[in-house]
Amino acid sequence: MSSLLRYAAVGLCALLAVFLGGCNAQRSQEAFQLTDITGAQFARDFQLTDQYGKLRSLADFKGQVVAVFFGYTHCPDVCPTTLHDLAVVREGLGSDAQRMQVVFITVDPERDTQELMARYVPAFDASFLGMRGDAEATAKVAKEFKVYYQKQALAGGDYSMDHTAGSYIFDTAGRVRLFAQYGASATSMLHDVRLLLQETHSAVAAGSVALNFQKVKATLADSGRWLGVCICSQP
């Protein structure tokens, strides 16, 4: 085996160990500020139409952190406040803003037409998407996300909607990870969205280092001189 290959093997082993150890240390030091629901067996997907008439699901946003909020356009306070805060979070990401998608799902499809959603939702941020379905589709997605909603009659024949106030946040692989209660600060949400994006950066970088290591290992194995310089594995 040439000295160059020996040095390459040892160097890559050391690099991989240091990199993975650094990532693990960072993960142990950084904690989510929102409610961590990683591994939850609900809020797995939706099939709804956006304000442009396109059928959407979570798979459409793979590679992005997705925030999903249920509400309605006639909501006087909770919904506009939450959408404003999510717009602040996206703006705070700077150059990573395009890696976050906000989805607003109406619980009032009777009044929230496609045309109304097209005017209302992008007013907070041009990238935001408003989703709607018929009564059956709305009930189905609300059940999947464990979201409560109920029509409440008002004087004069009008009505409001009681509904769960909070946002589900998905990682870039489409897995639900966090729940932001209504009132959670934009600062906390921004912190946690950044952590989710950092997970993606770390996974990509780790994969690249591991791939290079395997290439050198294969080269050494082909020469019949792989001596087990080190054994590197990611926990």
Structural summary, described in words:
The chain is α+β, with helices and mostly antiparallel strands and 235 residues long. It has two domains: 1-32 and 188-235; 35-183, Glutaredoxin. It contains five helices and ten strands; from the N terminus they run αββββαβαβαββββα. The strands form two sheets. Strands 1-10-9-4-5-6-2-3 form an eight-stranded mixed sheet, sandwiched between helices. Strands 7-8 form a two-stranded antiparallel ribbon. α3 (114-120) links the parallel β5 (100-106) and β6. The longest helix has 37 residues, at 186-222. The chain starts with a helix and ends in a 13-residue tail after the last helix. The model is unreliable at 14-19 and 224-235 (pLDDT under 50).
Q: Can I get a quick summary?
A:
This protein starts with a helix and ends in a 13-residue tail after the last helix.
